[in-house]
Amino acid sequence: MHIFIQNHFIRGHGLKANFSDLPDILQDKPMFILGNGEMYRNQTEVKMSQIVLPCHANYCGELSAGQLLKWMDSTACLSAERHAGCSCITASVDDIHFETTIGVGQVVNITAKVNRAFTSSMEVGISVSCEDLFSDRQWKVCHAFATFVARRTEAGKVQLKQVIPRTQAEQMEYSLAAERRRMRLIHAEIINDLLSSCSSQTVSECLDYQDAVPAERTRVESVELVLPPHANHQVSTFGGQIMAWMENVATISASRLCNAHPTLRSIDMFHFRGPSHIGDRLVLKAIVNNAFKKSMEVGVCAEAYQGGEPLRHINTAFMTFEVLDNDRKPCTLPRIRPEPVDGKRRFQEAIARKKIRLDRKYIISCKQSEVPLSVPWDPSNQMYLSYNNVSALKMLAARSNWVLTSEKNKVSLYTLEENQMLCFKVETHVAVAAEQVFLLLSDLRRRKAWDHHYKECEVITDSHEDDTIYRVVTPSVTKGGKVQDFILLASRRRPCDSGDPYLIALRSVTLPAYPPTEDYNRGEVLCAGFSIWEEENSFTKISYYNQATPGVLPYISTDIAGLSSSFYCTFASCSAFLEENKDNLASLPTSTL
């Protein structure tokens, strides 16, 4: 059952110390039966259920996005504090895409749990669904990932205990959390690179439109006095409250452009730059940066001050709004006339952020089955393709329902059929240190020394220190037929901590400079790569994964059918190659080392 007494704990993040002492029936955490028959509950999971009342709704009778953000932040903070055992503060929130709105009388169900803990920070996954009590329907509203930091105690900086994933879903999120953390750390760098390299769109075109709305008309400035009800149990301004105030002024700004009721569709990743406290005057500023055909970007800034002190930057966020017609379809929006100097800069930057938004939404957020085999690569989306490449391999490796097909001399072949897709895994052990294995397998040009499927391999570009694009030529799959070539992105990752493997992820990309030619059949790889686990005494487990596509399946089909054991010969050759070259790393390219 969902209990509403949780609301008393969540409001202001209070009484969290007693929450873990409630009986299991009151904690309402789902129970799983593990493979060994053990009953398991995730101890960091926290739920909140709220009926949407008129006081929570906006002028359209729908749940205010600001109110939802407050509930999400509250639930996530309680989950973080349950794991940390001390007070926690919101450090950042990843992109949030709102898939639907929620009406008065419907129930909001929010679930939060810690996916992974690092030194003093942790990632909390948040899922939001809506429930109609009269039709018994439920549907997804949004999901998000927030980063919380354990607050320093009198004893000093808090060292968080590690999360131990127990289910397949937890193992997957645990593994992906390390990759998402990497993306957060380079988020600002990605934006700056794109802003510096993006082509300048002519702002003068907007100045020529007679019906363009001056950006100055959409400017909003509002001040809020932080009172005790706005603070958490640490006497700091509640992060969810700041987000709600920011959403409020952004909505007003968007309304001034379109003279209608806008709907918030997404919020870009943002970071809290500093704390705010009771007694602060919080100054909130918003303006429409750019209006696209069916959506607009609103920039919001929150600053704080007390007395005569200078303003302190608390947060900046970018929110995307749409205006929906009676059929819930986006309407065409008026054009915006940017202000001189800063307005033009914001106008151009909004275009760059829209490109980033599309990359993040359609490369990162979509399901693996929805990603096309070959994705166009360019410098602006290289980080997101790298993320997707590694994440896909981690998701494949986290599957627990692999079936052993054959085994020979400690080389094992496993298969997995799911969603009309055949995947295979080859696993073996070598007496070579994991880092040496990683370095030797990272350079695909050396693979032809042990894999007869690799006839030629050349580096096309070193797009990043962790990413290289190769062109690989493989034999024909039919006698007398054309040979195949692949354009592969290889993404390398070292362990985030001692419990992680080394990873080498492979997937196909497209490059305008390397189109398919008549002399070759262009093959494609959706997901493949190596997971390299360090074991005792310089002993390493190597797992090779491949989500078989039509271009790959002919090379392995006879092994899967039990008519051949060429996989054994290939990986026996790989083991011999690693043994022979483990002390010869000096010859590797510097980009690999």
From TrEMBL:
CDD domains: BFIT_BACH. The keyword Flavoprotein does not apply. Keywords: Cytoplasm, Fatty acid metabolism, Hydrolase, Lipid metabolism, Mitochondrion, Phosphoprotein, Repeat, Serine esterase, Transit peptide. This is Acyl-coenzyme A thioesterase 11. Transmembrane segments: none annotated. Pathway: Lipid metabolism; fatty acid metabolism. InterPro entries: Cytosol_ACT, HOTDOG_ACOT, HotDog_dom_sf, START-like_dom_sf, START_lipid-bd_dom, Thioestr_dom. Its EC number is 3.1.2.2. It comes from the Eukaryota. One of its GO terms (cellular component) is cytosol. GO terms for molecular function: carboxylic ester hydrolase activity; lipid binding; long-chain fatty acyl-CoA hydrolase activity. Residues 402-571 form the START domain.
